[in-house]
Amino acid sequence: MAVGEAIFPEMPVIEGVRLGSAMAGIKKPDRRDLVVIEIPDGAAVAATFTRNAFCAAPVHVARDHLGQAAPRYLLVNTGNANAGTGARGQQDAERCCQALAELAGVSGQQVLPFSTGVIGEPLPVERIAAGLPQAFAALDERHWASAAEGILTTDTRPKGATTQVELSGGTVTINGISKGSGMIQPNMATMLGFVACDATVEPAKLQAWLRDAVKVSFNSITVDSDTSTNDACTLIATGRGASVTTADDEARFREALTRVLTELAQAIIRDAEGATKFVTLAVEEAGSVEEARAVAFTVAHSPLVKTAIYASDANWGRILAAVGRAPVANLDVERIVIDLGDVRLVEHGGRAESYTEDAGSRVMAQEEIIIRIRLGRGEEAATVWTSDLSHDYVSINADYRS
Q1: How far apart are CA 188 and CA 206, in angstroms?
Q2: How far apart are the first and last CA of the chain?
């Protein structure tokens, strides 16, 4: 079950970025579960990773390799997270990197590994190694869609986004794919994102711009408040296109990058496990961005709010209660205004006089819902996207290993 249409966009070629996939039988037969992404020589690469203390072995290895050599390949497997696997897990990740490196004629340190799937089980290195020749032989600049399929786990559909932006030196293309539908509250969900562009960007700036874009995209979504052991987002700038030089170029490029990452992040929420609703939490008039995000996430994480949304039950008191328990000091409830779509729920410390149950139920029945919260204490704002909590979410996760 998912919200909205499942349309994978036509992805323009980004010269030098090639993608290949294979069916390696890592967890299930007859499905794409192994992806290789080739990075052209001289490209800049930036990445953000989970902050989970039990971060997976591939996260450790990818971080180490980023600091040791210029990346030439990304290696992604699904069906097994290689997390909670200790020293063996790290050795297994390194072995997989080395297997691809030998095929490609590069060093093992030039391969960045990424894994997603079941935690705590040994990585099937032999299956991955056996599948690598097929994935490597399939490398092609046009294979974005098949790569997007090859990184999925409980997702019901591939996720992609693309845009082009005009800079002073020419047009830059940005393509991205992502996966994730459960265990989602990124902190850099299980989410992985791989984005490439043909811009020429200084590596330090690329890293800073990725970090900023991730904060308002992947780090602004939540399905179930669970931060994965494996979250990662990688950004490649091939350097084969226009340079990002002027202040206007920077603003245009950063806006386009944020737009692509936001579309990918929202696609995760639209495909959240068991989701029937796509919910936007917009908090305004906050004293700081941090307190706006605190209020938004408190509401987004509330099981009572999420189940009411699933049931299309206009139980607005659950929203009010969640706002009131957010970790924000000295909230003045008399100044707080809460709207559900075009319906005023709360003002002056209680239910709005104009509110009717019929009006609230009409909005709650919609597939896409906006909850707008004005705190009346400043000029800062933040937006978070979430899903409802359905019977199917429980079933999917109860049956995940069976």
Answers
A1: 16
A2: 19
Which residue intervals of 18-156 are DSSP H helices? Answer: 57-66, 86-104, 125-137, 144-150
- In tens, the pLDDT along 301-351 reads 999 999 999 999 999 999 999 999 999 999 999 999 999 999 999 999 999
Query: Where does CATH 3.60.70.12 sit in the chain?
Result: 18-270
Token code pair at residue 55: 């971060």
Q: Whole-model pTM? A: 0.93
What CATH superfamily is the domain 278-398? ArgJ beta chain, C-terminal domain (3.10.20.340)
Domain span(s) for CATH 3.10.20.340 in the chain: 278-398
**Is the distance from CB of 255 to CB of 244 less than 8 angstroms?**
no
pLDDT: which is higher, 372 or 398: 372
| DSSP, residue by residue, 178-231 | EE-SSS--------EEEEEE--B--HHHHHHHHHHHHHTTGGGEESSSPPPSS-
Provide the sign of the torsion angle of the four alpha carbons 36, 155, 9, 201, taken in this order: negative
Express each pLDDT in 229-243 by its tens digit.
888 999 999 999 999
Within a 10 A sphere around the Cβ of 141, how many other Cβ atoms? 15
Q: Considering the candidates 190, 229, 234, 258, report the single residue annotated as catalytic.
A: 190
190 is catalytic: yes
User: According to the model, what pLDDT value does residue 399 have?
Assistant: 67
CATH of 18-270, one of 3.20.20.70, 2.160.10.10, 3.40.50.1460, 3.60.70.12: 3.60.70.12
How would you write 348-391 as a 3-class SS string?
Answer: CCEECCCCCHHHHHHHHCCCEEEEEEECCCCCEEEEEEEECCCH
Q: Tell me, what amino acid is at 30?
A: D
